[in-house]
């Protein structure tokens, strides 16, 4: 169900990708000769570097005609030095090292942004409950001049705190270990290291969202290139950007692959930490926004002026049982006593779910005769967008209505088959989009309630 939710066709996509912020100063040039091997240093070893890891492991560089050799380098200044020496012409980095080089008129420029904001967390001992508690304490960063250093200094300056000892620890893993082992009182780290520290009992004194509220624009990570190289190899750079964008999309839509690669490269095996890491990837590399209104055209004349849209189908969480069929029939009958009901069941089998048959009668209408295999998603989208509310089986379709500003109530009956992973994400995103627009309920406790009371998702 998780993967199905993210891989609907564009019209049904609940994820509008936060596509890379292209600073495309390049135009397409000829591609007449075979590409040489492209060394590609990147860092840090964290979730912000996953687009390139996914692109490499999924052969997306090769798909775009690139022979890329990804090389993890933990220090951005080392990557810049390797580029200036000619050892590499493109790299996965951003932040102070690139900024400093640009300000000095150097040859390194930023060509795309993958993470255009701070993503660091200030993790501290549990006894420290406010920024003032850092006075006289030691806080670890990766290196002076690195993103962790700048983020920490911005926090200290905004809170007028000066008497803090800042220690450079090395990489993110070393910075995390410094707090775990008691060498420092706090550490500035990026995901997933903050998740690990939280599980160990440390406090997240400042989250990435708190940092963004400071209003400080910052490019944490992205694609950098030598200006001189990009000028003569524009097609290479454009294809690197495209492969990175495709890696970002694959990272979001393919949950199992992403978790597998997070485990492989970041050495995380804990299911809870993998889950938190994947949610971070989705929330920070995808953009959730309301869908534009749809034109109903001729369909409008065939629909009631006011109605509720429904679609019930059977799956593991809502199996085909006599009691579930009875529940749906009772619900439809009750709805039809007070409003028109439009059933969204298509006339053909389009996936592995069996729709619950609902007969047309009285105020119960069907749009099956208006659907073809090619137009069924169009029709369902238009009907949902104009509805007062949507009711149906908990699953991918139940996530769509809130993006049109339509209330959604979905049902399940088998809690052992219910996955909460996407619900965790939906709770946060639907609250931001439109509070109160999405509910999911166990059918045994939902009869007769609209809006339902109790377990609200957003």
Describe the protein.
This protein has 458 residues and is an alpha/beta fold. The protein folds into 3 domains: 2-115 and 219-287, Periplasmic binding protein-like II (D-Maltodextrin-Binding Protein, domain 2, 3-Layer(aba) Sandwich), CATH 3.40.190.10; 121-211, Periplasmic binding protein-like II (D-Maltodextrin-Binding Protein, domain 2), CATH 3.40.190.10; 297-445, Rossmann fold (3-Layer(aba) Sandwich). The chain is built from 16 helices and 21 strands. It has helices at 2-6, 50-57, 60-63, 76-84, 96-103, 147-158, 172-180, 193-199, 208-213, 227-232, 234-253, 255-266, 271-285, 322-336, 376-386, 421-433, and strands spanning 16-17, 21-22, 38-42, 68-72, 90-92, 108-115, 121-124, 138-141, 165-168, 186-189, 203-206, 221-226, 286-287, 307-311, 313-314, 340-343, 354-355, 364-366, 389-393, 407-412, 438-442. The strands form 6 sheets. Strands 18-16-14-19-20-21 form a 6-stranded parallel beta sheet, sandwiched between helices. A 5-stranded mixed beta sheet has the order 9-8-10-7-11, sandwiched between helices. α16 links the parallel β20 and β21. α2 packs across α11. It starts with a helix and ends in a 16-residue tail after the last strand.
Principal-axes shape call = globular
Mean pLDDT: 83
CATH fold field value of the largest domain: D-Maltodextrin-Binding Protein, domain 2
How many domains make up the 3D coordinates? 3
Q: Spatial order of the strands in the main sheet?
A: 18-16-14-19-20-21
User: Which stretches are poorly predicted, pLDDT < 50 over at least 5 residues?
Assistant: 1-32, 444-458
CATH architecture of the largest domain: 3-Layer(aba) Sandwich
Largest sheet properties: 6 strands, parallel
